[in-house]
């Protein structure tokens, strides 16, 4: 697989990563199978999908344990990204950026992942009660201690409403500029896909101008852009899409022209090319510093996603994709 670098030339990964969250959190619990997920991660590594993206809050903790079972056998082949800063309660999620907690959380993640170093340690969310510089300083200490190789930041407000006169990621850029004064940022993770392009306004260019990698979260639109979801089919109560404003039956039907546009482009490249591969190829075309990280829990989908870097979109393809209708949400 094509290789790309994150932040520094030493942080090299496959051009498409693997989001491990769906294997144990946030998506239909009845469809989660531990053994199948393990086979999926192994298949990803076989295909050169080296970036494995997880977090301590996924599960919580069970996703790191799952990834750790693979790393125990194949650590040298993987680039491991995990996250810190969010605690999951019964009905809520809270931020914790206290330096002492960050240090303890890192040690716990290392144990669960069965490794002695985390390649990319990301701040999931800044704690409003703790200056972000203090949290980032504690993370920087972990790099100096040899427990972490590089640091990243997850975007804030990726699903928030757009304020008049404000770009969606202005808050994230302000945080980035603050923490850059403490220790270099190697990567930023934020939503970017054909139907969520806001990061292109300022965040992706900010990263490009500073040699920072950009990890595209949800590049397949939580599964919608694959064209495999049926409007009105519904989701299990524990599935995040059951409460998502773009996944009501009405909005899924209204947004079908986006999937139809992806299919039209796919057909130009052959009967075996899928809408998902076109969607990922579009993300890859946004810059050499951009790495899509689609979530998957089946070998079939990992195999399909791994084919995207070999798809070269033409200028006409990119023009047609840029002309797709804007995605609608239930509150629009």
Provide structural commentary.
- This protein is α/β, with parallel strands linked by helices and 332 residues long.
- Helix content is 35%, strand content 17%.
- The strands form three sheets. An eight-stranded parallel sheet has the order 3-4-5-8-9-10-11-12. A two-stranded antiparallel ribbon has the order 1-2. It has a two-stranded antiparallel sheet with strand order 6-7.
- Helix 2 packs across helix 3.
- The longest helix has 15 residues, at 99-113.
- The termini are far apart.
- Residues 158-165 have low confidence and may be disordered.
Helix/strand-derived class?
A: alpha/beta
Main beta sheet, described?
A: 8 strands, parallel
Assign a percent range to the helix content. Answer: 25-40%
Could you tell me the radius of gyration in angstroms? 19 Å
User: What overall form do the CA principal axes indicate?
Assistant: globular
Which residues sit in consecutive blocks of at least 5 with pLDDT less than 50? 158-165
Beta content? 15-25%
The strand count comes to 12
Strand order of the largest sheet: 3-4-5-8-9-10-11-12
Run of helices and strands: EEEHEHEEEHEHEHEHEHHHEHH
- Determine the number of helices (DSSP H or I, runs of at least 4 residues): 11
Distance between the termini: 40 Å
Determine the mean pLDDT: 93
């Amino acid at each position: 697989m094509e290789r790309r670098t994150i932040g520094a030339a030493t942080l090299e990964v496959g051009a498409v990563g693997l989001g491990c969250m769906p294997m144990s959190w946030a998506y239909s619990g009845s469809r989660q199978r531990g053994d199948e997920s393990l086979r999926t991660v192994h298949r990803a590594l076989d295909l050169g999908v080296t970036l494995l993206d997880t977090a301590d809050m996924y599960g919580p903790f069970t996703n790191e344990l799952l990834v750790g079972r693979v790393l125990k056998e194949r650590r040298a082949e993987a680039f491991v990204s995990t996250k810190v800063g969010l605690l999951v309660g019964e009905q809520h999620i809270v931020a914790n950026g206290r330096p002492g907690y960050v240090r303890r959380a890192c040690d716990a993640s290392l144990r669960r992942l069965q490794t002695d170093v985390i390649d990319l340690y990301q701040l999931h969310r800044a704690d409003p009660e703790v200056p972000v510089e203090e949290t980032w300083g504690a993370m920087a200490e972990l790099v100096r201690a040899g427990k972490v190789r590089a640091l990243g930041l997850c975007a804030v407000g990726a699903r928030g409403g757009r304020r008049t006169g404000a770009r969606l990621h202005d808050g994230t850029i302000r945080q980035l500029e603050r923490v850059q004064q403490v220790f270099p940022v190697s990567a930023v993770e934020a939503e970017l896909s054909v139907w969520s392009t806001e990061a292109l306004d300022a965040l992706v260019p900010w990263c490009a101008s500073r040699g920072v990698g950009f990890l595209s979260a949800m590049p397949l639109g939580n599964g919608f852009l694959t064209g495999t979801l049926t409007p009105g089919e519904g989701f299990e109560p524990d599935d995040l899409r059951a409460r998502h404003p773009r996944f009501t039956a009405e909005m899924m039907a209204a947004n079908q022209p986006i999937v139809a546009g992806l299919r039209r482009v796919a057909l130009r490249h052959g009967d075996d090319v899928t809408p998902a591969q076109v969607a990922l190829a579009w993300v890859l075309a946004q810059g050499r510093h951009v790495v899509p990280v689609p979530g998957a829990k089946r070998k079939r989908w990992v195999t399909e996603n791994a084919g995207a870097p070999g798809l070269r979109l033409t200028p006409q393809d990119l023009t047609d994709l840029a002309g797709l209708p804007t995605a609608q949400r239930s509150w629009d």
